[in-house]
């Protein structure tokens, strides 16, 4: 565990040395502040459009940070020829993969904390209400969703040749799941066999990232999600994280280091 | 080697030349029919495709009216063909049918059933309190306004943007002056639109309590109305607004005790109505009263004696 935490610490340090997060955070703040300054029929209580825009930017930024940070971790070690010396130390390949995952996931969590703090302040100053529990549920679901994304990208970085191709493929998969994942079962019903069976198999196999997208509930001030379902969603995310990490460890074990 | 002063002078000369050319050509370009330099940013950036975006934002406003509980392209949207935020103004013909509560149908597997816990799953309207079911929060309907404004900017010819915006501004937010301004803007972009004139008449009658002006505006709306030939829904929507205008005028005339004129307006409304029976009852009632008044009045000859 000590080794895993040490590797994770290096990844977190790398994130705050890079400019990606700062740029995305400042762009999000600027866009939201400009939109907040728009006068709509002299009514300063109108806020939901602003919440939606802010959450959209938070989601895009967090996905960009998660995928791009994770995709370059192991390829960069190989390219810089630091992978072999790293593994020469008392560090197993599994520990390296787990350390990289933990570092990227915690780094994503820290960025989420900053983004949601800004979102909470923006919404709170307009709405004069602080639904802390709703925000807690949303941020945790978002963070666990990013856990799945990080684990998937880590697996991709061991399968695909370059970080760019891995990032592109991951973005396409994530975008596809978020946009149509929820409806795939209904679409499958309209298809002839064997496409129907294949679509249904895909529907049950993919990680349903849209479960973790509770933006509509936050934007429109819906009540809390039942805690039992919220907990089940976290377990669902952990299962996929476990599956992708196991896959990554297996692939990395058989992979040539240089 | 040339001195840097020469280069500086050259730069200044080119700048003066470009400024002069711009000042000379710009007015000429502005007058050209195909010019895009009319100051409309959306028109320059998007061209005619901005109407597509405008429709999207109009739908987005209706999704906000339902606090996010809204059908996607994969769902059955027959109960959402006409935006509910427009339907609830009472000035728009509804093409909706089917069950608005259950457009998603029952979940077909456990995964879908589980997933429904993470997005809005209940039909509510913002003007009725939204998800909190709190009627005191009915002014939350303000949240639809940014999208309607954006839709109006993108497609100034869509009259429903103006009428819906104005209705909610005055009904729930009590911003009558802003509603009035929106309708004037709408009339500027769509001169003589009977939908906008009808809403303007309602504003005069219900918010300013100026019935004379309201009647004049409705009369102008009735004059501007023309029957159209198109598909059933378009013709029905066009007839519906005339029915509303004529009915309002009929009621105004009845209040003023001008029974014959009221009957005329109700008959005009009846000629385009899909539910003529309700209007017929009002016409019969007025005719009865008119006949009763004629019987009780003394003959003109007797009166003169």
* Number of helical regions of chain B: 14
Rg of chain A: 20 Å
Mean pLDDT of chain B: 84
Order of helices and strands of chain B: HHHHHHHHHHHHHH
Strand tally of chain A: 0
User: How many domains of chain A, as an integer?
Assistant: 1
3D shape of chain A:
globular
Percentage of helical residues of chain B?
A: 55-70%
Shape of chain B: extended
Which quaternary structure do these chains form?
heterodimer
The average pLDDT score of chain A comes to: 90
Structure description:
Chain A is mainly alpha-helical and 258 residues long. Chain A has 12 helices and no strands. Chain A has helices at 2-17, 20-36, 48-71, 73-79, 83-88, 93-127, 132-159, 163-180, 184-189, 195-205, 215-219, 227-254. In chain A, helix 1 (2-17) crosses helix 6, helix 3 (48-71) packs antiparallel against helix 6 (93-127) and helix 3 packs antiparallel against helix 8. Chain A is globular and about 65 Å long. By secondary structure, chain B is mainly α. Chain B is extended, with a radius of gyration of 28 Å. Chain B has 14 helices and no strands. The model of chain B has no long low-confidence stretch (mean pLDDT 84). Helices cover 62% and strands 0% of the residues of chain B. Classes of the chains: A mainly alpha (258), B mainly alpha (305). Chain A binds chain B through residues 38, 40-43, 45-49, 141, 180, 182-183, 185-187, 189, 203-204, 208, 210-214, 216-217, 219-223, 225-226, 229, 232-233, and chain B through 64, 67-68, 72, 74, 108-109, 111-112, 114-115, 117-120, 130-132, 142-143, 145-147, 149, 169, 173, 175, 178.
């Amino acid at each position: 565990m000590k080794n895993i935490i040490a590797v994770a610490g290096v990844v977190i340090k790398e994130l705050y040395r890079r400019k990606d997060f700062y740029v995305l955070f400042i762009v999000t703040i600027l866009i939201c502040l400009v939109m907040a300054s728009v006068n709509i029929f002299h009514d300063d209580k109108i806020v939901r459009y602003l919440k939606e825009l802010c959450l959209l930017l938070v989601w895009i930024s967090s996905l960009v940070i998660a995928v791009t940070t994770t995709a370059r971790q192991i390829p960069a070690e190989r390219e810089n020829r630091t992978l072999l010396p790293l593994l020469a130390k008392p560090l197993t390949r599994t520990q390296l993969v787990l350390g990289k995952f933990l570092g990227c996931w915690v780094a994503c969590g820290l960025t989420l904390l900053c983004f949601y703090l800004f979102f909470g302040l923006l919404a709170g100053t307009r709405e004069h209400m602080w639904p802390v529990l709703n925000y807690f549920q949303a941020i945790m679901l978002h963070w666990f969703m990013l856990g799945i994304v990080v684990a998937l990208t880590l697996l991709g970085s061991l399968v695909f040749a370059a970080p760019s191709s891995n990032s592109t493929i991951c973005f396409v998969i994530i975008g596809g799941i978020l946009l149509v994942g929820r409806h795939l079962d209904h679409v499958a019903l309209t298809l002839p066999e064997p496409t129907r069976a294949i679509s249904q198999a895909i529907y049950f196999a993919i990680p349903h990232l849209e479960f973790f997208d509770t933006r509509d509930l936050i934007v429109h001030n819906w009540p809390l999600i039942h805690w039992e379902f919220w907990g089940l969603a976290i377990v669902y995310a952990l299962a996929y994280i476990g599956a992708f990490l196991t896959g990554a460890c297996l692939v990395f074990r058989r992979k040539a280091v240089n | 080697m040339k001195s840097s002063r020469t280069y500086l002078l050259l730069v200044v000369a080119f700048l003066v030349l470009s400024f002069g050319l711009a000042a000379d050509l710009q007015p000429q370009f502005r007058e050209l029919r195909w010019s895009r330099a009319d100051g409309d940013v959306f028109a320059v950036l998007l061209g005619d495709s901005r109407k597509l975006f405008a429709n999207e934002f109009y739908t987005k406003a209706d999704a906000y009216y339902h606090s996010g509980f809204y059908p996607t392209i994969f769902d059955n949207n027959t109960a959402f063909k006409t935006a509910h935020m427009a339907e609830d103004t009472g000035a728009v013909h509804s093409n909706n049918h089917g069950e608005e509560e259950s457009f998603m149908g029952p979940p077909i597997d456990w995964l879908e059933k589980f997933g429904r816990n993470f997005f809005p799953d209940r039909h509510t309207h913002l003007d009725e309190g939204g998800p909190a079911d709190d009627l005191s929060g009915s002014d939350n309907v303000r949240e639809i306004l940014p999208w309607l404004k954006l839709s109006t900017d993108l497609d100034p010819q869509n009259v429903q943007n103006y009428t819906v915006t104005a209705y909610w501004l005055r009904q729930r937010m009590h911003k009558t002056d802003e509603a009035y301004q929106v309708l004037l803007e709408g009339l500027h972009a769509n001169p003589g639109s009977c939908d906008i004139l009808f809403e303007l008449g309602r504003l005069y009658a219900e918010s300013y309590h100026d019935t004379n002006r309201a009647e004049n505006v409705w009369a102008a709306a009735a004059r501007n109305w023309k029957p159209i030939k198109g598909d059933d829904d378009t013709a029905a929507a066009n007839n519906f607004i005339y029915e509303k205008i004529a009915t309002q005028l009929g009621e105004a005339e009845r209040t003023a005790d001008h029974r014959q004129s009221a009957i005329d307006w109700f008959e005009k409304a009846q000629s385009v109505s899909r539910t003529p029976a309700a209007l017929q009852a009002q016409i019969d009632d007025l005719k009865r009263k008119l006949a009763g008044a004629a019987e009780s009045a003394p003959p003109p000859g007797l009166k003169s004696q």
